[in-house]
Amino acid sequence: MKNLLDGIEEILLMGPGPSCVPPTVYEALAKPTLGHLDPYFLTIMDSIKSMLQGLLNTKNALTVPMSGTGSAGMEACFVNLVEPGDPVLILTNGVFGRRMQDVAGRLGARVEALEFDWGKPVDLDQTSDALKKGPFSIVAVVHAETSTGVRNPVAEIGSMLAGTDTIYLVDAVTSLGGIEVRMDDWRIDALYSGTQKCLSCPPGLAPLSFSERATAKLNARKSKVPNWYLDLSLITNYWNQNRVYHHTAPVNMLYALYEALRLVLEEGPQAAFARHREAHEALVAGLEGMGLSMLVEKPFRLPMLNTVRCPDGIDELSVRRRLRQEFKIEIGGGLGPLAGKIWRIGLMGHTARRENVDRFLQALQAVLP
User: Fold this and answer.
1) Fewer Cβ in 10 A, N or C end of the chain?
2) Positive or negative CA dihedral for 49, 53, 56, 59?
3) Residues 6+ apart with CB under 8 A from 239
4) What is the CATH number of domain 23-265?
5) Collapsed DSSP state (helix, strand, coil) of residue 274
6) SS3 of the chain: helix, strand, coil, percent, to 5
7) Neighbours of 286 (CB within 10 A)
8) Taken in order 262, 266, 270, 275, is the CA torsion positive or negative?
9) Per-residue confidence of the chain (369 residues) as pLDDT tens digits?
């Protein structure tokens, strides 16, 4: 029988995720599988939790990687914190804010969506006005909107919520590991991320953290969490000292996350952030040198997810196909109202290196008329 795995090529992953994976993370995946209650594996779990707390700049006891991708992390936050009738404000300027709206609505929340132009950041004055119409049980926003390349003012929104009982929920799927995330200082109560972006670990886990305020809301629920698999009141009994079995943890994926986090902390978070920023600046300079323009204004751009306008008369899909087929480079296209209008170029984690930027720019120059 033909083995299709033999046909997998090494592709330079410069799309919106996943990112390139370092060799030692692949090696970690191939380590012998231990039982999910094995004493040595439990020490690895404890180290993962500690490293996540360090990278998130939080002391939250409930800090764990959920079994599932970043979308599972998003759903875990909402199913644990939302009860029917809860008023929820979602600040939306892209696909992933709209996804939050969908999930909260399915759980019976009274969702109010404050919509902003795609490619623009959340406006603080409009947000302040919306908050005055509250109180809201939850306010949610995406830190790094992957569909547009916009960095939202997460810290400033957190300041607006100081002194209130509102739970502040933040999507950090694309930001964690690429730009600073200060969960405690920014008054973030619930946060989720993913492994496949700036952590450069294969997709499959969703780092998540709850503050004491969020944990108290979970514990005070009037009804059971509607999703058994994502019920943190059960999962935390496995991750804390009790080690009560809930589900079989993806052991080898957790090895990979351990190594990915170790690499980020070994490099130093500030050094990793600077590497992302320098790669971004080189990319933008090269694109603008080719006459291309960026979608997002400079102060609000993400270093790890770059959106560039496709010139009139160019078939953006054919450019992406040629990059993949002829140059073994993957980039992404636009979503929603930006479909067919932009390219999304990822510089995440291990991918964020000058040699990858140079290789991409040379390939793009060859492909564009």
Assistant:
1) N
2) positive
3) 45, 49, 64
4) 3.40.640.10
5) helix
6) 45, 15, 40
7) 17
8) negative
9) 999 999 999 999 999 999 999 999 999 999 999 999 999 999 999 999 999 999 999 999 999 999 999 999 999 999 999 999 999 999 999 999 999 999 999 999 999 999 999 999 999 999 999 999 989 999 999 999 999 999 999 999 999 999 999 999 999 999 999 999 999 999 999 999 999 999 999 999 999 999 999 999 999 999 999 999 999 999 999 998 889 999 999 999 999 999 999 999 999 999 999 999 999 999 999 999 999 999 999 999 999 999 999 999 999 999 999 999 999 999 999 999 999 999 999 999 999 999 999 999 999 999 998
pTM to 2 decimals? 0.97
Main-chain phi, psi angles of 132, to 5 degrees: -70, -20
Instruction: Tell the CATH topology of 4-18+268-367.
Output: Aspartate Aminotransferase, domain 1 (3.90.1150)
Which residue has 């993400």 as its token pair? 302
In whole angstroms, what is the distance from residue 56 CA to residue 121 CA? 22
Question: What DSSP state is assigned to residue 182?
Answer: -
Residue with structure tokens 């351990």? 258
Cis peptide before 18 (omega within 30 of 0): yes
Among candidate residues 222, 68, 255, 248, the one with its CA nearest the CA of residue 77:
68
